[in-house]
Design brief:
Blueprint (H helix, E strand, L loop, with lengths): L3 E10 L2 E11 L4 E5 L6 H9 L6 E6 L2 E2 L11 E3 L11 H11 L4 H14 L15 H13 L5 E5 L7 H18 L2 E6 L2 H7 L2 E6 L2 E6 L1 H6 L4 H6 L4 E9 L3 E5 L4 E5 L8 E6 L5 E3 L6 E10 L3 E8 L2 E8 L11 E5 L6 E4 L8 H5 L6
Parallel strand pairs: 3-8, 3-9, 6-7, 7-8
Antiparallel strand pairs: 1-2, 1-4, 4-5, 9-10, 11-12, 11-14, 12-13, 14-20, 15-19, 16-17, 16-19, 17-18
Helix pairs in contact: 2-3, 2-4, 3-4
């Protein structure tokens, strides 16, 4: 049985639809990320789960209990805000202990639970310090400990790492996931960072303009995007407009000045498509020996890889190559480009951005 269920949940501010017909099933112990650009409705969704925003229509059920209209302080959820919202006049220990005091937890039990959760987030030696005496990463850990100490059924994280520098943010991503796995708390994370969502989530919910576009496991989401928006928002993609010349298990796709082969599943002859090809799926080969040739217009060294911009017969393409032992291509150099047919993804040219809601709530589709 599902642990947390959102059924056709919508939120309107006057005529404006912030979230429309949101349906989601979260299993107990799952780590789910709501991913999307600013204004897509992910934070509003989190606020409705928390009880901070009123649901216009639909239902939210937690562990068999309808909490759609329940007051936020009766839901028992743990929440970590973007700003952390620590009490500046309280020590680390008192910040973490506050929620237990509000629940009239006995002093002895309170001491044990705070000590245990501070040890979990590696802050046991800093219990007497104040927020102003902590680094950004340490303050983030205090906020997380305060949310976990009450043993919430669901942990809600509203972009908790966005105030950290890039290196610390990456470290905290994996630490957050490790802590979540140890505790086993069902967790929902709001983020606009696709790398963050992909690296630590069991499933990712991609949102656009208040609607869900796809719900899948990170690898499936990246390798099989359902829409043009997802293929470019989740990672990078080369998009080439084309038309299906011949359908079948292997389709012939006309790109204008070039014809290529791709997976023809579900395609009809004459259909307009967008061919999506990830930059790292393209390999350099000698000119004339690949699917097409290109000329390097720019190259960028990114440490672990090289990023190339090329002019080709179908327009500009981007290629990403590992920084290995092969001598990098020079700008203005000619090269062949090759890829596996399995690397191509065919998207409807006029793709419907919102996936079928039944498919979204089917967890087995994400496995």
């Amino acid at each position: 049985m599902s642990f947390l269920t959102l059924s056709d949940v919508s939120k309107y501010y006057g005529p404006f639809c912030a979230v429309g017909n949101m349906s989601l099933v979260v299993e107990k112990g799952e780590f789910v990320s709501l991913l999307g650009p600013s204004g897509c409705g992910k934070t509003t969704t989190l606020q409705m789960i928390a009880g901070f925003a009123e649901v216009t229509s639909g239902r939210i059920v937690l562990d068999g209990r309808d909490i759609t209209t329940a007051r936020s302080n009766t839901r028992g959820l743990g929440i970590v805000f973007q700003s952390y919202a620590l009490f500046p006049h309280m020590s680390v220990f008192d910040n973490v202990s506050f929620g237990l005091e509000m629940r009239n937890c006995p002093k002895g039990e309170r001491q044990e639970r705070v000590d245990a959760v501070l040890a979990l987030v590696h802050l046991g030696e800093l219990a007497t310090r104040y927020p102003r005496e902590l680094s950004g990463g340490q303050r983030q850990r205090v906020a997380l400990a305060r949310a976990l100490v009450i043993e919430p059924p669901v942990l809600l994280l509203d972009e908790p790492l966005s105030n950290l520098d890039a290196k610390l943010r990456e470290e905290m991503q994996f630490e957050l996931r490790q802590i979540q796995r140890k505790v086993g708390t069902t967790t929902i994370l709001v983020t606009h960072d696709q790398t963050e969502a992909m690296s630590i989530s069991d499933r990712v919910v991609v949102m656009e303009a208040g609607r869900v576009t796809q719900i899948d496991a990170p690898y499936t989401l990246y390798e099989r995007p359902r829409t043009r928006f997802i293929s470019t928002f989740v990672g990078k993609a080369n998009l080439m407009p084309g038309r299906v010349r011949a359908a079948g298990s292997v389709a012939r796709i006309d790109l204008g000045s070039l014809e290529i082969e791709g997976d023809g599943t579900g395609l009809d002859a004459g259909a307009e498509v967008i061919v999506s090809l990830r930059p790292e799926k393209i390999s350099f080969v000698p000119a004339g020996q690949g699917q097409m040739d290109g000329v390097v217009t720019e190259r960028f060294f990114l440490g672990s890889q090289w990023l190339y911009h090329l002019d080709t017969a179908v327009g500009p393409l981007v290629v990403a190559c590992p920084n290995g032992d092969v001598v990098p291509l020079e700008e203005h150099g000619h090269t062949g480009l090759a890829w596996s047919r399995r690397s191509l993804r065919m998207l409807p040219a006029a793709s419907i951005e919102v996936a079928d809601s039944a498919a979204q709530t089917d967890k087995s589709a994400a496995s």
